[in-house]
Amino acid sequence: MIPLKLFWEFLKIGAFTFGGGYAMLPLIQEAVLRNGWLTETQLVDFVAVSESTPGPFAINISTYTGVRTAGIMGALAATLGVVLPSFLIILLISGCYKKFQNSRLVKGAMQGLKPAVVALIAAALLSVGENIFRFEDILGKENIVSAVILLIGGFLCYKKVHPIAIIGVSAAAGVLSAAIGV
Questions:
Q1: Domain encompassing residue 124
Q2: Engineered SS bond to 70: which of 2, 32, 83, 150, CB 3.0-4.6 Å?
C-alpha cells in the first residue's frame, strides 16, 4: 500500500512542477513531512546526498525517499511516479514541437513560468536553509563557520567554478569543522 501512495504523491509532484528538481523541493518537503515518511533532519540529509550524487536531483530524492520508506518497491514506485509525467509530456510535446515552436502564446507561457520557477527554488532554499542555519542561534560559532562556507560557496558559484570542485570544497570544510569541533 505504501508504494502505491509513494507513486501517487510523486506522480502529482512530477506532474505539477515546472523547472526541475529544485522547483519540486517545496512539494516534496510538504508530501514527505505530511505523510511521515521523513523527518526534517532526514530530508535535509537526503537533499545533501541527492545534490552530491550523480543523476537528476528529483530522481535521487524520490528514490532515497522511496527506499527509506518502503524498500526497493518504494524506490521504484516513487522514482516511476516522479519521472512518468515528464516522460509523457515530452513524448506529447516532441510530436507538436515543430508546429508550435514559434507561437507567441507558447513563448509567453515559458516567459511567465521563469519567475515562478525562481520563486519555488528560492522558497526551497529558505526552507531548507532554515533547518541548516538555526536562526535562533545566529551568533553561535557553528553558524559563523556555516556562513563563511556559504559565502565561499557563493563566490565559487559566481566565478563559475566546476560544481564538483564546489562539492569537494564543501565536504572538506564540513570535515574540517567536525574535526575541530565546530
A1: 2-132
A2: 2
Q: In whole angstroms, give the CA distance from residue 62 to residue 145.
A: 30
DSSP result, 17-58: --SSHHHHHHHHHHHHHHTTSS-HHHHHHHHHHHHHSSS-HH
pTM summary value: 0.58
Measure the CA dihedral 117/66/34/1, to 10°.
130
Note whether 112 and 142 are same-domain residues: no
For the chain, the domain total comes to 2
DSSP letter for each residue of 112-140: HHHHHHHHHHHHHHHHHHHHHS-GGGTTS
Least Cα distance to 49 among 76, 30, 67 occurs for 67
For the ranges 7-21, 35-49, 103-117, the lowest mean pLDDT is seen at 103-117
Question: How far is the C-alpha of 28 from the C-alpha of 142, rounded, in Å?
Answer: 28
Tell me: do 34 and 108 sit in the same domain. yes
> Per-residue pLDDT tens for 12-38?
999 887 777 777 888 889 999 999 999
Burial of 15 (0-12, 13-18, 19+ CB in 10 A): middle
